[in-house]
Write a structure and sequence with these properties.
alpha+beta; 5-stranded antiparallel sheet; 20% helix; 8 strands; Thiol Ester Dehydrase, Chain A; homotetramer; elongated
Chain lengths: 136, 136, 136, 136
Amino acid sequence: MIRSEIKIRVRYGETDQMGYAYYGVYAQYYEVGRVEAIRLLGFSYKEVEARGILLPVVDFTINYKKPAFYDDEVTIVTSIKQMPEGVKLPFEYECFNAAGELLNSGKVTLVFVQKSNNKITAIPDWFYNALKPYFS
Amino acid sequence: MIRSEIKIRVRYGETDQMGYAYYGVYAQYYEVGRVEAIRLLGFSYKEVEARGILLPVVDFTINYKKPAFYDDEVTIVTSIKQMPEGVKLPFEYECFNAAGELLNSGKVTLVFVQKSNNKITAIPDWFYNALKPYFS
Amino acid sequence: MIRSEIKIRVRYGETDQMGYAYYGVYAQYYEVGRVEAIRLLGFSYKEVEARGILLPVVDFTINYKKPAFYDDEVTIVTSIKQMPEGVKLPFEYECFNAAGELLNSGKVTLVFVQKSNNKITAIPDWFYNALKPYFS
Amino acid sequence: MIRSEIKIRVRYGETDQMGYAYYGVYAQYYEVGRVEAIRLLGFSYKEVEARGILLPVVDFTINYKKPAFYDDEVTIVTSIKQMPEGVKLPFEYECFNAAGELLNSGKVTLVFVQKSNNKITAIPDWFYNALKPYFS
């Protein structure tokens, strides 16, 4: 499997008037997490787009256990647990605070889209080959 | 059931470099939707907090069918389909573009929290009584 | 001069833990304001881009007098006070709350950029001609 | 003077359909910059609030020279150039890309506010004393 960890700090502008990191901000945190997970493959998400592939999100689920607060350091653990087949790329997430408490867990599924014609496409060979060593 | 509709326009700052309304922005759109749904009960979400109740999100799920684009008018349809019991308040959503195409559908579950002690609490009577006429 | 008014409601996700609409959110509110001001010219900002012109921001200044709070209705007054000449398009702003109190005032200067070569360009004739009737 | 540097990476959700980091996102970047600058004083901005002081923004000015793009590493240089007197705390900023090019420069002025009564107040002694060694 692929597993990456990245730490981010909750920004003031990301809090809401409850004093929580706004529930919607985790869409961005998860995105930061998967960008780092993809970097493990030897290319960046930026390069993926440069190679003509877009990866829009088709499903996003998140279960919140505890809030994060302003200036908290949040560890985002991002995993690809099974070798992707077909057109989809599923990520699993867990966020933890500095005390190691689980803040939330979730899933985001991306789909491979050919930029030139905006059509869903099978996982490109170069992407498949970069993933494969992690699942043997 | 409760059902509300509100139209919002995609802001430039909400687009991403794919030209899509960023997938994370729907957390805010859904929040705008449920705020309008709650207003149907005769009080605002602001008043809910003033009465000592917070409604943080415990679950959020969204399935994306089509992107919205800059300046698109998006209709957010928000529903409470069953009379809430216990501590949770579940909302269902559908977003449509101006052509009536379904952009995405989703669910958000809120939980009643007593502001004074930060504990989960049963739906307050005044909230329950305001909801009840919609489910008879 | 050109003058447009639009009302927006402060979203929960736009508040911060002070309970204020986050200071950075006005960049988006001002953008919403100028999009409506441009619509008065008979075309949308979306069409401006479709005609090959981008309008990135080169200067942004804002002075905050009072905060807006969650669910407040904010009126954004956007003006172009002088006929633009050259390459720049300057907007002036005032935001008011429902009590008519000035929340903040500011300026945003856009610059005309040719999308095809990414170079700064003089105001296009069609844009100039649409503005002119407002400044006679 | 006080001077801090912090690097952040442009998130996908921070880009707009021009492919630029949205002009409004720098309000957050500057906020991240001053939070790090304040940490040099031996306390965090979180502790400032815990000590009963809020620091809302009263002025924000930014001049954009070049855009940042998705996944760019942006260095935010934050400075307090003069010993603050009275009720205001002014920060100056410069953002650079990885090539060392200036992206933008700006100023943000904060004001000391007593949380208990929501009134503007002179710089507290403990804040003044923490700043003083940097300006001798």
